[in-house]
Amino acid sequence: MIEFYGREFEITSEVLRPRPETEWLVETCLSLDLPDAARVVDVGTGSGVIAVSLGLERPDWLVLASDVSEPALEVARKNAKDLQAKNVEFTKADLLDGLEGIFDLVVANLPYVDKGWGWVKPEELKDPDVALYADDGGLALIKNLILQAPKKLTPEGYLVLECDDSQVEEIIKFAKGHRFKLHERITGDFGVILQVVASS
């Protein structure tokens, strides 16, 4: 078990152990100007800490949690059941592929670590590789999500991403080339959360 946003979540070897900075991701989402009955999707939900926290904080929202890993989804479903997050639903999906409808908010803490980073010590992380590493300097999944998201967002919807500080400028440049503009950049001691708002 691990504490996240004031609640106890079960964490197994199948999912990423949530970091303190990911609580900022939740705070950022809660601070956005969203409709009362907002539709939200947490992409790559893992243990479900983001989706479940958002669902419990905003019971008027409909939160969808997606992941490509069925074992991860099993962990997330159990956490939602144990914490009685009744407005959170789960589905197996590769990023946004196959998800129905449009969303007011897409939030994601995807794998963004590059295996070539010298300061990363895999033996100390105790997380599954699939939850940590991505190609293209760690940006492969994030870029794919940026490409998919405009068609799945409302005209003024938001995409909120967690990433490393070293990746922020490249993500902003890439996103601006694909129907996004920078809404806010949030920097903290443990990394960066990038928030962009879709252009109409």
General description of the model:
This protein has a single domain (2-198), classed as 3-Layer(aba) Sandwich (Rossmann fold), CATH 3.40.50.150. Helix content is 28%, strand content 28%. It has six helices and nine strands, in the order E-E-H-E-H-E-H-E-E-H-H-E-H-E-E. The protein has helices spanning 21-31, 49-57, 70-82, 122-125, 140-148, 168-176; strands at residues 2-4, 7-9, 39-43, 62-67, 88-92, 103-108, 153-163, 180-188, 191-198. It has a seven-stranded mixed β-sheet, sandwiched between helices. The longest helix is centred in the middle third of the chain and has 13 residues, at 70-82. It is globular. The mean pLDDT is 88.
CATH level-two architecture? 3-Layer(aba) Sandwich
Number of strands: 9
| Biggest sheet layout | 7 strands, mixed
Share of helical residues: 25-40%
- Low-pLDDT regions: none
How many DSSP H or I helices? 6
Could you please say which CATH topology applies here?
Rossmann fold
The average pLDDT score comes to 88
Silhouette: globular
Q: Distance between the terminal alpha carbons, to the nearest Å? A: 42 Å
Q: Given this structure, which CATH class is correct? A: Alpha Beta
Rg over CA atoms, rounded to whole Å, is 15 Å
